[in-house]
Amino acid sequence: MSALLELAGIGISFGGLRAVDDLSFTVGEGQIVALIGPNGAGKTTVFNMITGVYRPNGGKILWYNHDITGFAPHRIARLGIMRTFQTIRLFSDMSVFENVRAGCHLRTRQHWWQGLAGLPSQRREEAEIADRTSDILKRLDLETVADERAIALPYGVQRRVELARTLIANPKLVILDEPAAGLNDRESAKLNETIFGIRDSGITVLLVEHDMNVVMNVTDHIVVINFGRKIAEGNAATIRNNQQVIEAYLGRDDDETEEAA
Ligand SMILES: Nc1ncnc2c1ncn2[C@@H]1O[C@H](COP(=O)(O)OP(=O)(O)O)[C@@H](O)[C@H]1O
Ligand SMILES: [Mg+2]
């Protein structure tokens, strides 16, 4: 297994708060890796550092062994690192099809208006993009709602639209921030299938998730953080039986591990 992404001792502070501290872990090519931990542990902040939203003030981020620490978000996206957000961000006036198609331009430098000039090569490219959009919609079971206004659809469907929009940019790594949040049991079981499907299409997956049905059943590797520091890592069986993890996170019945169901 070769390392696709490696975090080597990264950290960041907000004022006096050390939100992430000396964190190291590796995401192997083709793996499904979960980052878990209590609310406020620093998970989203880790994603924000990987995607260039925040610059770590310690450590390095390596992509195929190349240092990408401090790269701007658009450069990170062009490398093939794409993300979804903890709260859904869809274009409110667009259909499902249009929302997903718009994802094409997240990785390339092309803008929507460049397709309007009408040159044959541009028309061909637009046709290819439309084909790819249809293809992704089919893969994520969104064909029947392609023409509906995205934000009028049920929450679980909107989540899939967001995922489709990320996948159409042809990423090498997708980073999913709480993809099961707000899904019902049936939708969360379906999400497991979707995540396996993404990996089988050659895309590596890094996710933050509270829903243990997703975390324990789909991941190859789990990294646990608490107060910004790594407290354990390993496969599902190892993590489930780790005393420190049970005390800090799994054993508590007052957090969102239940809420996501
Ligand atoms: N931009 C920011 N400014 C100040 N504090 C922040 C900022 N982003 C995150 N934090 C703080 O960093 C800690 C980790 O937050 P976050 O990464 O969102 O946690 P998680 O995703 O694990 O719930 C929290 O205490 C949060 O309040
Ligand atoms: Mg978060």
TrEMBL record:
SMART domains per UniProt: AAA (SM00382)
SUPFAM superfamilies noted in UniProt: P-loop containing nucleoside triphosphate hydrolases (SSF52540)
GO molecular function: ATP binding
Domain ABC transporter intervals: 5-252
Keywords of the record: ATP-binding, Nucleotide-binding, Transport
Pfam families, per database record: ABC_tran (PF00005), BCA_ABC_TP_C (PF12399)
The protein, known as: ABC transporter ATP-binding protein
